[in-house]
Structures are given as structure tokens and as C-alpha cells.
Amino acid sequence: MLLELGIWSGAAYLLHRSLFSPLTDKQKIEQVFENIKFGFKDKLPKHCFTHENNDVVIYSYHIPPGLTNASTLEEALTIVFDRPVKVELRSVLKIKVYKENLKEKYKYESQKLESWNVPIGLSLDGMIYHDFDKIPHMIVAGATRWGKTAFFKMMLTSLIENHPNDVEFYVLDLKGGLAFHRYSTLKQVKVVASNYKESAVALKQIEKDIQKTMKEFKRNFHENILDTNITNRKFIFIDEAGELVPDKSMSDADKKHAATCQRIMSHIVRVSGGLGYRMIFGTQYPTAKIMDNQIKANSSAKISFRLETSIQSKVAIDEPGAEKLPYPGRAIYRTTDRHLVQTPYISNKDMWNRLRRYEESASTRKETDERGENLVTFG
Ligand SMILES: Nc1ncnc2c1ncn2[C@@H]1O[C@H](COP(=O)(O)OP(=O)(O)OP(=O)(O)O)[C@@H](O)[C@H]1O
Ligand SMILES: [Mg+2]
Questions:
Q1: I need a surface site. Which of 102, 234, 265, 273 has the fewest CB within 10 A?
Q2: CA nearest 191: which of 136, 148, 236?
Q3: Ligand nearest to the CA of 307
Q4: Which residue in 98, 118, 11 sits closest to 55, CA to CA?
């Protein structure tokens, strides 16, 4: 009788507790340790301290040696909290429980940035930047309508705002030039190529320019632009490299132009980073055919918007996950680190309002072209 009473009162206590005093976040974490057996027998992680700021609560635990499966723990905690959770497993286990999800949209704002940094996006831990002087080339992957062109435009805006007199752009806009045509009159935008022939001509000129720069570097015993006082940089934007793969539907002439483009893009990533050229290679379809080994191996920064399959994600960023990104502009950015970000969005109108002051009249551009200053070497 007494025993029965005890069981009932125990159950009533548990029921009362689950109904009226929900578990604290710390208790939830510890229950997850038990449930997924994150530890060894009776050796579970031991709480040592908790730290809180505006955005996140960080729970730190001492761990028994030998624990490894942080990703399973992260996955389980994310489900339990229904909010972002990050697990860092080093000598101490840190569990970061964020107070809010990443924003679904994040508006571009002008920022004064050091070196050749551009904003990549807002992560749970703050803004992430990419320095093109540290990593010259980048791959931008993403299925149609998930944010590649908007990302190119945001980078173009930020680079012009920060380096109006030192940056040059060569844009291959193979969807007929529709996305970048409007910016072709900016003084920093030297070429907007909108078909195979124009793309091949632009890339051939860049190739020549690279050779000339190389000679100058040799003559002056420069190994890398970072060792010189040369301040300008040349960005080659390829918005949809998939269009540059020769295929049966193309005319013979276009096939030839596309093959030329592929050869030169591969050459650019191999030799030109140290000379001050930066190639950003965008594609909807990350396949070995479109992104050859040289491009993959020499682009140590990769960003992917949503892709169709985990296999594509592995080709683009060396890990699955891009196939699950939920919103346009949400991306995984990988260098040696990995960040989930919401890239800053800039509308065409806002972009034009910021950049229109750099517009050059047709006659000034013509004069510049005639003097052959479009593609001269640095200096
Ligand atoms: N950073 C962002 N934040 C919020 N919305 C975005 C962002 N980037 C893009 N979008 C939305 O997604 C739409 C498609 O973006 P975008 O044109 O850049 O796609 P895309 O990847 O270039 O597509 P495609 O491969 O077909 O050219 C935009 O018109 C905009 O509405
Ligand atoms: Mg696009």
C-alpha cells in the first residue's frame, strides 16, 4: 500500500513537473547527453560554467577523454531547442544555444572595409568577410534563383564603394548581358561580355595583360602583388560558367570561343592570383565538366547557395548540406573554416543609386578605349 502510494506520488510529481515547470535549457542538454549516450557509462560531460550575451547562451562542460560525435549531439540539440545550436568539441565542450534564428533577409549596407575585404554574410556569430588579397579566387555555386547574381552584384557594389579608383571589373554575363549591362558604363567596369565571342575576346585580352604583368614583375623581381605598392586589383566575374561548356547545340564558331574561354579561365586561376587578378566563378551546375580541376584546386574560397542534390553540394563545397538551404541568399561559405550565412541583399535600384556617380560618358569611355588604357598592366 505504501509502495503503491510512493509510485503514484512519484508519477504525479513528474507529471506536475513536466506540465508546470518545464526543464531548463541546461537540464534539456543533460537529458540529451543521457538519451544519445554522449559519454561513457556513468561518465557524462560535467557542467563547468555558463556564459550569456545578447545573442547566445554558451554552456561549457568538462568531458571524459575520447568523445568524438559532436555532429550527432549538435543535430539532437537543434531538434530539442528548435533554434540554432553549435557544438564545439575541444578539450572543453562548448554548446552555444542561440536566441534567434538567422534572419531570412539581410539588407546590404555600406561599410568601410580594410584591405580587399567584401562582406559575405551575416552568420550567427556576426558578419563574415572575405579578403581577396588572402584568397584571390572564389567559386559561387547555386541552383537557379537562389542568389548568385545578387551576390555578384553585392560584391561589385562593395568593392567599388571601397576602392573606386583601384578596382576594375571584367564581367562575363552569359545570360545575354541582362544582369550587368546597366553597370557597363561605370568607370570601374571595363567589359561586360554577353555572348561567347565577346567573352573569348575579353578573356584573350586579360591573358595578354597577365603576360605583360608577369614580365613587369620579373623585371622588378616581384614575386607577389602583396610585396609591391601596386594598389589596383582586377576582378573577373563569370556569372554562369555552365554556359561556357561547348555543346552540340552551339555553332562551330561558338564552340571554339567557349573552348578558348575554358582554357583561359583555367590559366587565370593557375597563374594570376599573385599578380592581382581575382576570378569569381559562378555556376548553377557544379560538375567536373564545368569546374575543371584547376579551378577547383585553385579556388580556396567556395560559397554555395541552395543546390539540387547533396552530390552537387559535395562537388561545390566538399560537403553535403547546400541542398537543404531554406531561403534565397542563405549560403554555406567555406575556406579552411565553414560558416552558414545570410548574404547581404541589394536591390538593383539601391545599387544604381550608390554607383551612378561613377558613370562615365560614352565619349570619355571611347577616349579611354582608344588610348588602349582598358587593359594595361598595373601601375
Ligand atoms: N541575399 C539575398 N537575400 C534575399 N533574397 C535574395 C538574395 N539574393 C537573391 N534573392 C532573391 O532571389 C532572387 C533570385 O536571385 P538571383 O537572380 O541572384 O539568382 P541566381 O542564382 O543568379 O539565378 P540564375 O541562376 O537563374 O541566374 C532575387 O530576385 C531575389 O528576390
Ligand atoms: Mg543569375
A1: 102
A2: 236
A3: 1
A4: 98
Predicted pLDDT of residue 14: 44
User: Can you read off the three cell numbers belonging to residue 264?
Assistant: 583561359
Run of H or E including 311: helix 310-317
Distances (CA, A) of 46 to 25, 60, 62: 15, 8, 5
Residue 326 counted as domain residue: yes
Mean pLDDT per 10-residue section of the chain, whose length is 379 residues: 48 51 91 93 92 95 91 94 93 95 94 97 95 96 97 98 98 90 96 95 97 96 95 96 89 94 94 96 88 85 97 93 96 95 98 96 69 46
Q: Which residue has the cell 556569430?
A: 125
Residue 327: CA atoms inside 13 Å, Cβ hemisphere, count? 14
Task: Say whether both 142 and 231 belong to one domain.
Answer: yes
Same domain for 194 and 122 = yes
Q: Do 48 and 162 reside in the same domain of the chain?
A: no
Number of domains, the chain: 2
Residue 165 contacts by C-beta under 8 Å, 6 or more apart in sequence?
232
- Whether residue 186 is contained in a domain is answered as yes
CA atoms of 272 and 233, how far apart (whole Å): 11
Domain hosting 70: range is 23-98
Q: Are residues 35 and 125 in the same domain?
A: no
Plot region of 205 (φ>0 → left; ψ -120 to 50 → alpha; else → beta): alpha
Q: Which of 69, 98, 127 is the last residue of a domain?
A: 98
With the most atoms of ligand 1 within 8 angstroms of its CB, the residue from 103, 105, 146, 173 to mutate is 146
Query: Residues within 5 Å of ion ligand 2 by Cβ?
Result: 148-149
Which grid coordinates belong to 186?
561605370
Residue to mutate, 107, 139, 149, ligand 1, most ligand atoms under 8 Å from C-beta: 149
Give the end of a domain, one of 98, 132, 150.
98
Extended beta strands in the chain, E state: 46-52, 56-62, 85-89, 92-98, 117-123, 126-131, 138-141, 167-173, 189-193, 233-239, 277-283, 301-304, 330-334, 338-342
Task: Decide if 245 contacts 179 (C-beta within 8 A).
Answer: no
Strand spans (E) along 102-229: 117-123, 126-131, 138-141, 167-173, 189-193
- CATH of residue 333's domain is 3.40.50.300
Residues 208 and 338 in one domain: yes
| Same domain for 300 and 188 | yes
